[in-house]
Amino acid sequence: MEQFKGLPRLPTTAVPRRYELELRPDLDACKFDGKLTITLDVVEETKYLVLNSADLVIKDKSVWLRGKDTTKVLVPSNVGLDAEDEILVLEFEEALPRGKAILGIEFQGTLNDQMKGFYRSTYLINGEKRNMAVTQFEPADARRCFPCWDEPVCKATFKITVQAPVDRVVLSNMPSIEEKIDGASKTVSFEESPLMSTYLVAIVVGEFDYIEGTSAAGNKVRVYTEVGKTSQGKFALDVALLTLPFYAKYFGTPYSLPKLDMIAIPDFSAGAMENYGLVTYRETALLYDEKHSAAANKQRVAIVVAHELAHQWFGNLVTMEWWTHLWLNEGFATWVSYLAADHLFPEWKIWTQFTDQTMEAFRLDGLVESHPIEVEVHHASQIDEIFDAISYLKGASLIRMLESYLGAQCFQKGLVSYIKRYACKNARTEDLWAVLSEESGESVNELMDSWTKQKGYPVVIAKRTDDGLELEQSQYLSSGALGDGQWVVPITLCYGSYEVRKNALLHGKVGGVNLSDFKLVEASSQSSWIKLNVGQTAFYRVQYDDVIAARLRSAIAAGLLDATDRFGILDDTYALCSACKQPLSALLSLMDVYRQELDYTVLSCLINVGYKVSRVVSDAIPDSAAQVKLFIINLLQFAAEKLGWDPIAGESHLDAMLRGEILTALVALGHEETKQEGLKRFNIFLNDRSTQLLPADVRKAAYVAVMRNVTASDKSAYESLLNVYRETDLSQEKVRILGSLASSPDPSVVREALDFSMSPEVRNQDAVYVLFGTSSEGRETKWLWFKENWDLISKRWGSGFMITRFVSSSVSGFTTEEKADEIQAYFSTRKIPSIERTVSQSIERLRINAQWVKNVRQEKGLEDILQELAYRKY
Ligand code: BES
Ligand code: ZN
User: Which of 53, 196, 651, 820 has CB atoms 3.0–4.6 Å from 655's, for a disulfide?
Assistant: First the structure.
């Protein structure tokens, strides 16, 4: 036993080929019984079989082994379970000979409440609360349902049988082939699966209705919803029916299973899970209600469905060899989901919206406490934390960068070969690069290794010279410190027009671009702007010298730049200012040229930057807090006036999303008129739930308006909002309300909302939304509350990745060194491995905020500039 402890991977002396699994869940007692026979290959003579098992009881004397072609049965002399390493070690008297063998095990487990392994979720039917049984195995929880070689590389086939009450729906990865009814129970057996990894196995037992359809490529798709709610599954079904053939064509390989089921699960820790042939979702990520869902909800459903279906190829058919390559799965699915969404809904301008995802990756990867995309994983407990913005969003952004460098067609052809070559197998990052190199003739690994093997990213400093540009790269760090990373940077630039373009690779620290062949353009200064990283397709920031920066401002004001570039310039400038590389005044004068902005993605960025600027000014120069808010409110007026509160006939999806964002921001920034309008409409809505005056897109704005108005002495509106929460059975509406509840400026109301988040009225999966929505005035209360509730929080959420969200949002919003010290001290006595990275990242952020505040406090002349900007007339 000892020799198998502390190993990062299972020994490879024996490998599984086929699992025959029988499960008998007891939905009332929340227990299950299981029986397994595993066909294995003993590759090397060994006395031991070592596999994963956790939280399971192995039935006494139930383990046996026999050679494939003999009847001689061996019984292990010792059966050892190691709870820490989650392994089951079977020791035999004599070495097992090489060759095929069959292993039998019987076991028992609990349908837990942790939303992982084989767990229970609850639902209401005719007012009665009932249990369903659901699986969530990724990354390493199949071992909580049955003993197995629980590593992605150990692909095997699965023949699954489930016994359940006769009136329940029973689903698994494959179609059922037989149902045997025996009194009140039935035994459902499923077709044997193709080769697949354990983390993709799925079983659901519950009560559902479904709708179904067949795609143009002949794929049978069903969407399972709560009983009576199938109309809410229609949109996701349509997306799936169009997406499957799109991917089949794009990847050059058809969808490989005979059916695809998608199902909404009431208690679910992630957003969705790509189980092969049986994709599970949170209700908010699958269901769409014509009347009560917002445009943003619709987009979310489409993106999540497209993401999970992408995994059916990228992840399920071709699987990462080990979790170090998780980014291949998640980065790729994220990138491809945008490709599919763009194909289905070109009017959503989803690639413009993608710049926002890249920005999220920039935020995390600007920290010293970030990590490389390819990250070492030594223990199962470390896997959860790498499902983060680095794997997903930096991953997706790098793929976008590579695609635009190689060209879309060449890139796709490479992918087709990759999928064909590794179908039903496993691959590493370098395997993908090798195929793409073959296809393109470029040495892709040389370019990409600098991006995937080291953390961070560069800022390229661009200075105008007589005949062109001087470029220098250095690592961008949000703290402003100097990092020593270097990258191979694909430089693109446009000069005066999108027609005039140059591409180059920056290999070393410095380089240059000659622009003397473009002399003519220089004639008119307004049109002689220079923009690097055209379309924001690459993963670097740019710092321009004052001359280029001023011309870019004019170009933005004159409407000459695309939305992605307007976004990039704003976000890069924000990032450089908050890292104290540029004065706040530079950011303010840039923001000022976005007054006529109407693009959804750019305005969302302006709003976010606006919140940050408002916070830093309020903390650094409290006397200017009102002015900075007024300045930002004024910036949003143009769009606000165009959009109003009511939908405009025939308006675009993006305008519908924008309306909600702008109005919510205006309320949060304290725009009195917008707040009053929100209150008025909420009151109409209270009397008439079907009023046209409060469509789903603007409800969040009205709810925040309500809460901004609630004080300890008058909480009636809070109670009314809670009643709306209690009444609705649409998860999206519940989440919208939860996200507004703590936005009151009154700390005692914030506390009450936070307490409510822990009550039985809020599912464990949703509590954190209340925390996310805490007002800036409530930051101290939020932190106090978190400390008081730490024991409960760590008990309830400590075993999964959800705890990281509690930690990061509870400590966010502070801007002093003292607070950073206090928080650091607090967590130094509460070390749990699953939050280690999050804690260090959060503390780093706090210190960066503190430094910015200090810097802004010292900046000369800011009060006057803000005064000027706030009251300027246009
Ligand atoms: N494979 C993940 C689900 C997952 C996440 C499992 C974390 C285990 C731990 C799934 O494909 C996924 O990425 N879901 C996303 C939604 C997606 C649209 C980004 C999610 O859960 O948020
Ligand atoms: Zn995914």
Answer: 651
